[in-house]
């Protein structure tokens, strides 16, 4: 193995005791985090203890603190809430309460704590850590422990994971539970929209978020709400009139419904609360619209965790154990966090300090600063919402005279329509005339091109599939006709939303520029495919929705297997040669194995998996789940694996198979895909606007450089434009996958949580970073450059 990589075999937890607790408000995904901590802890030979009922259980001790086993966290992954309980604890806020908690931990040898909760819970943990040596001294003086125990347990290590549906903790892009809460909100909004449309009603929805408007803002973005009210951006005086005018204009545009979303902590500029009843009465009084109120309440905390939350919590749980193993007495308490798709560690108190600064800025009515302190993700969401929700009057839009065409290419993927809507509206705001191309490059060659207006894309965000129509046809055989249509409609730029065919198509158009000058225009591709197999992007629009479809199906199958006992299910997923869906789906569903093309396997590996499942059937967990990517091996087909498992498992377990098929491409897009599609398409159009100005020479657009045909992709922590020619070297064109794929690092994680011995690369771990707003100016510059690279 390469020397540059660091593996955790040398990190042993032997002799260490880890306590895991959930505290404060519950959030979906907490159980996945607890499961990951327990299994990773046991894997490295540490003892892991459940601390039931949060800090209350730590103070009370006794049966509240119990050793966890591998089997005790089985079937937790798909459950909402927290199985080990959570409670608010007044006693822990007192010195006497913390003294009792310290005694209970020392008696069991627990000096490593994994705390899953909000900023209050994590602040309490840090205070406990700073007082630890003093508490032990006191326990020695009162004779409750001896000197030796105080020396042995002299240092308390704390690692936090943020479990909060509000996403109100600074330093992390997403907290555990936020994505699941968005799923609940969007499910309700989608259901409400159908009834609202039937009766031409206005609905006022209140979502959670007493101090943070993230849920309100992102759900407004994801459903295309007419108006949103959040604590970080109170509306100016006279907002009532503006809102009513907008609702009225939307109805005049033949929109049959209005949606207004309010965060429970929404205020105006005078710090006066804005309630749902106030907004409802205002709409009824001013416009006479039939208006109803829906308060979502604790529905948002409930239900099963989304695939995103399960993966996030599992990754954080493993990272938390690694952080505890590497901690020294001088290591500050840290929070395991997420930036882009990377798990990082941040000093706990820096994050808390930053979170408190947001509240301070809001109390001082410095709302612009509050939005900045929330982080770039929050700021981007807000700016994108403003861009898409408010249509400037024609008199305020400076017409550009440029025509921009949008088309979908390849297989349909949930979220494509949200991307098209975003592109069209941002393009119109930028002054361009927007054209929609039906049925991909095939429709392009046939002249299926029409102008598309602002109102034409209303209500598109929540629709699955591709409303423009999409085909896998490549442009190579239609270049003359496509060039002719570009000339007829005077198309000055192209936005292609699609999968690997879109990428190949862009390369073909680029290669044809020398013969067809009409193709010398700025072109940008936005990756959209359930397979997530596009070079230059870690994520594609549609992959999250497909993952949730896989995860939900696996949950039902596991339930069936639990009922019948001693049953193993073989499940085939989509993805072509790309094993993303199989691997990440297996991690989210708690599968025992996942077969993929990128990790070749032999008959011996299959035999090992059968033996592993045979051993598993001897425990209390008498079921198995195996995922297989559709093209992982031409000989070891789903039928072959099913027959092998059936034969080898005779007398121990029986076998069933399921091919999930096109259900993975269907359904309403997940909140993540709606939001991702909306933001990435908006950024793509802004790039097009910039390039159009750059390449406009002597009355026409002429773009013939390599950087005028780009792919916009998510790389680690940032959205990056990359010339498609530069991505050729990164591409395996035969198997239609990138040569390097970040998610392969998750495979050992999946195996460890399924009780396989493996090597886990921790090269990216162990780096303690700093919160953006609390870095020095120089550190900020370096970090920004690194993220842009």
From TrEMBL:
It comes from Astyanax mexicanus (Blind cave fish). ATP binds at residues 25, 88-89, 118-121. Its cofactor is Mg(2+). Catalyzes the phosphorylation of D-fructose 6-phosphate to fructose 1,6-bisphosphate by ATP, the first committing step of glycolysis. It is an enzyme of class 2 (transferase). Its main location: cytoplasm. Its EC number is 2.7.1.11. Pathway: Carbohydrate degradation; glycolysis; D-glyceraldehyde 3-phosphate and glycerone phosphate from D-glucose: step 3/4. CDD domains: Eukaryotic_PFK. Allosterically activated by ADP, AMP, or fructose 2,6-bisphosphate, and allosterically inhibited by ATP or citrate. Keywords: Allosteric enzyme, ATP-binding, Cytoplasm, Glycolysis, Kinase, Magnesium, Metal-binding, Nucleotide-binding, Transferase. GO terms for cellular component: 6-phosphofructokinase complex; membrane. Gene3D superfamilies: 3.40.50.450, Phosphofructokinase domain. HAMAP family: Phosphofructokinase_I_E. The gene is PFKP. Belongs to the phosphofructokinase type A (PFKA) family. ATP-dependent PFK group I subfamily. Eukaryotic two domain clade 'E' sub-subfamily. Belongs to the phosphofructokinase type A (PFKA) family. ATP-dependent PFK group I subfamily. Eukaryotic two domain clade "E" sub-subfamily. Residues 18-323, 403-688 form the Phosphofructokinase domain. Beta-D-fructose 2,6-bisphosphate binds at residues 472, 529-533, 567, 574-576, 630, 656, 662-665, 736. Pfam families: PFK. Mg(2+) binds at residue 119. Homo- and heterotetramers. This is ATP-dependent 6-phosphofructokinase.
């Amino acid at each position: 193995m390469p020397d540059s990589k660091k593996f955790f075999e040398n990190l042993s937890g032997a002799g260490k005791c880890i306590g895991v607790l959930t505290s404060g408000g519950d959030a979906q995904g907490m159980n996945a985090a607890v499961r990951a901590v327990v299994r990773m802890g046991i894997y490295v030979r540490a003892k892991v203890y459940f601390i039931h009922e949060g800090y209350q259980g730590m103070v009370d001790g006794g049966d509240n603190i119990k050793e966890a086993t591998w089997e005790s966290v089985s079937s937790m992954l798909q459950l909402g809430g927290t199985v080990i309980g959570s409670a608010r604890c007044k006693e822990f806020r007192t010195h006497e309460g913390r003294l009792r908690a310290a005694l209970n931990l020392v008696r069991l040898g627990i000096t490593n704590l994994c705390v899953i909760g909000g900023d209050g819970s994590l602040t309490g943990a840090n205070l406990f850590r700073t007082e630890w040596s003093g508490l032990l001294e006191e326990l020695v003086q009162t004779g409750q422990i001896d000197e030796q125990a105080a020396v042995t347990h002299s240092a308390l290590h704390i690692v936090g994971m943020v479990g909060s549906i509000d996403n109100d903790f600074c330093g992390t892009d997403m907290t555990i539970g936020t994505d699941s809460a968005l799923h609940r909100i969007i499910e309700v909004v989608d259901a409400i929209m159908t009834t609202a449309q039937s009766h031409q009603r206005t609905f006022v929805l209140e979502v959670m978020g007493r101090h943070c408007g993230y849920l309100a803002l992102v759900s407004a973005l994801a459903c295309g709400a007419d108006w949103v009210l959040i604590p970080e951006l109170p509306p100016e005086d006279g907002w009532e009139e503006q809102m009513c005018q907008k609702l009225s204009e939307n109805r005049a545009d033949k929109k049959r419904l209005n949606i207004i979303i309010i965060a429970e902590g929404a205020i105006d500029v005078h710090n006066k609360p804005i309630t749902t009843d106030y907004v409802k009465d205002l709409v009824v009084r001013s416009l006479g619209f039939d208006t109803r109120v829906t308060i979502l309440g604790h529905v948002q905390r409930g239900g099963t965790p989304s695939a995103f939350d399960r993966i996030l919590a599992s990754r954080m749980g493993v990272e938390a154990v690694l952080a505890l193993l590497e901690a020294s007495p001088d290591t500050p308490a840290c929070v395991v966090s997420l930036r882009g798709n990377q798990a990082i560690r941040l000093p706990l108190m820096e994050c808390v300090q930053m979170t408190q600064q947001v509240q301070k800025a809001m109390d001082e009515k410095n709302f612009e600063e509050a939005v900045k302190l929330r982080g770039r993700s929050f700021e981007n969401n807000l700016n994108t919402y403003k861009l898409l929700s408010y249509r400037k009057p024609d008199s305020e839009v400076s017409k550009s005279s440029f025509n921009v065409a949008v088309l979908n290419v390849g297989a349909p993927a949930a979220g494509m329509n949200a991307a098209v809507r975003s592109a069209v509206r941002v393009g119109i705001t930028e002054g361009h005339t927007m054209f929609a191309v039906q049925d991909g490059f095939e429709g392009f060659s046939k002249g299926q091109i029409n102008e598309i207006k602002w109102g034409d894309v209303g209500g598109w965000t929540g629709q699955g599939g591709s409303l423009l129509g999409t085909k896998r046809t490549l442009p190579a055989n239609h270049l003359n006709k496509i060039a002719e249509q570009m000339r007829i409609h005077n198309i000055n730029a192209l936005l292609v939303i699609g999968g690997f065919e879109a990428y190949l198509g862009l390369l073909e158009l680029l290669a044809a520029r020398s013969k067809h000058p009409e193709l010398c225009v700025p072109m940008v591709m936005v990756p959209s495919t359930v397979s997530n197999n596009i070079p230059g992007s870690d994520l594609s629009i549609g992959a999250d929705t497909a993952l949730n479809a896989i995860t939900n199906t696996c949950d039902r199958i596991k339930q069936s297997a639990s009922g019948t006992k001693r049953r193993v299910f073989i499940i085939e997923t989509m993805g072509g040669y790309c094993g993303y869906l199989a691997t990440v789906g297996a991690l989210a569903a708690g599968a025992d194995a996942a077969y993929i093309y990128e990790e070749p396997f032999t008959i011996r590996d299959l035999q090992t998996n059968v033996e592993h499942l045979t051993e598993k059937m001897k425990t209390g967990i008498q079921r198995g789940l195996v995922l297989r990517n559709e093209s992982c091996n031409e000989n070891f087909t789903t039928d072959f694996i099913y027959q092998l498992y059936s034969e080898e498992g005779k007398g121990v377990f029986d076998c069933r198979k399921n091919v999930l098929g096109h259900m993975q491409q269907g359904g309403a897009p997940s909140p993540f895909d709606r939001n991702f599609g909306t933001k990435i398409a908006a950024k793509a159009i802004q790039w097009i606007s910039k390039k159009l100005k750059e390449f406009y020479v002597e009355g026409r657009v002429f773009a013939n450089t390599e950087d005028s045909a780009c792919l916009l992709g998510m790389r680690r922590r940032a959205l990056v434009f990359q010339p498609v020619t530069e991505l050729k070297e990164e591409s395996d064109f035969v198997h239609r996958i990138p040569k390097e794929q970040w998610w392969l690092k998750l495979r050992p994680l999946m195996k460890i949580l399924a009780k396989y011995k493996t090597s886990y690369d921790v090269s990216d771990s162990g780096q303690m970073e700093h919160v953006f707003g609390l870095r020095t100016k120089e550190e900020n510059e370096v970090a920004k450059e690194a993220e842009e690279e």
